[in-house]
Amino acid sequence: MTDTALAGAPVPAGPGDVVLRAHGIGKSFFGVSVLQDVGIEVRRGEVHGLVGENGAGKSTLMKILAGVYQADAGTVEYEGHPVSFTHPRQAMDAGLVTVFQEFTLLPERTVAQNVFLGREPRRGGFVDRRAMVRRTRDLLSDLGVTFIDPAGRVGSLTVAEQQIVEIVKALSFDARVISMDEPTAALSDHEVELLYAIIRKLTSRGVAVIYVSHRLKEIFDLCDRITILKDGALVSTDATADLTTGELVRRMVGRPIQAYFPGPVAGTERGAARVELAGCGNDFVDAVTLAVHAGEIVGVAGLQGSGRTELVEGIFGVHGFSRGTMRLDGRPVKLTTARAAVKAGLALVTEDRKAQGLALSQSALDNTLLVVRSVFAGRTRAARREVPGILGSLEITAGRLDQEVRFLSGGNQQKVVLAKWLVTAPQVVLFDEPTRGIDVGAKIAVYQLMRQLAAEGKAVLMVSSELPEVIGMSDRILVMRDGELIAELPAGSAEHEVLAAATGSDDLDQAPDAEGRQP
């Protein structure tokens, strides 16, 4: 049953149940409408998912609620009263705090100094450092966090720990609503579980959480209700229990889930082995034997630290194999540098596109030509003529080729990374977390590209921590554990089968059912 089919139809709720209500919100920038008549209601103690493709309006809505932007139309009610925040500090002081994907912490200052920045407790006209540390420790303790030192420097913390500091900073404002924008984008699996536990503790105390994520599993794991936006308009708000993964995807992108993981392109045939490893190892992986053939996509699954990334880095020469034999198209090779791998016809789409895949201050054109200019300088002019066609085939929405990639969406940035490698005409393409942090529509574009590469006779090896992605896209599934390749599973294997191999356990719960519902 749909709670909100239209922006003008608010969700029924008991007295005092709704802590935040936005109604009829509209917003335009330079004459371009980005939100039209959007509404959302958030209840105390719930996790409310906000989903949609890039450009759907999620970030704009969140920034209006946070006081970063002011709406052109519509009203916002908080704690039962109309509000019109003109500055983020006003919203924060009122208890409505947003934790953005890009942290606002100062790395050279302590945890306590960051939590109370600009609001330091004072005694006798001076900053009371002891009180600041004590209050920060109390906030951390309330969340069950004892491993973060309030007097420690933020720059020494992991990404997950910095995420916790941002949440503690929000709680220091006596937050009643905390909005989280892609909070797990850079977290490992066990760090995600820690965040889950903290969110559940927050909601048990009556704090409402607005949760924005492209990871559908997290949405179904955590959220009580889900609001879907598309093209700046409200599609629906429903109880999570009333939605399936397939229906959620259909509403977000306007197509059924069957198109989410596309099958092989008609006429695709598996050919000879393009890359073969026999007993290969280095300081990170050992005794790996495998083959990836032309025309197939082979997925690599495993827990964090299992050696998945290290495997593709070994193949690509980043950490070259010190033992065993590697063959490319039947010829023995020993790749010890990435440059040598590129010359041999390999490409590696790295996990962290911002740190490893892109020069953010350079244009889309320059980024696309990065590898060619470095390795195949003599082909630069010809490659430059190919760039518009390659970018166009990937449906990159950059207005101009000279637009800096830092201003592109995450999905378009990832497409530029892909274009950078496509222009080198590789025969073996290695993907490490190819869809991390991008929206559903961009994911589908990446999946279609992978299928097209296979149809052209390329060999594709894909590492992913998202099991539905591994299962949905792989013609075969390889499972890593403790630096070793310990299993090969057929296409379509169940999630619990992959997990059993990855963990060494035969006693795991079943995967989501045939309707796509999460367990």
Describe what you observe in this structure.
With 519 residues, the chain is of the alpha/beta class. The protein has 2 domains: 257 residues, 3-Layer(aba) Sandwich (Rossmann fold); 231 residues, 3-Layer(aba) Sandwich (Rossmann fold), CATH 3.40.50. Helices cover 32% and strands 25% of the residues. It has 18 helices and 23 strands. A 7-stranded mixed sheet has the order 1-13-12-4-11-10-7, sandwiched between helices. The radius of gyration is 24 Å and the shape is globular. The two termini are 20 Å apart.
Provide a brief overview of the structure.
With 519 residues, the protein is of the alpha/beta class. Helix content is 32%, strand content 25%. Helix 16 links the parallel strand 20 (428-432) and strand 21.
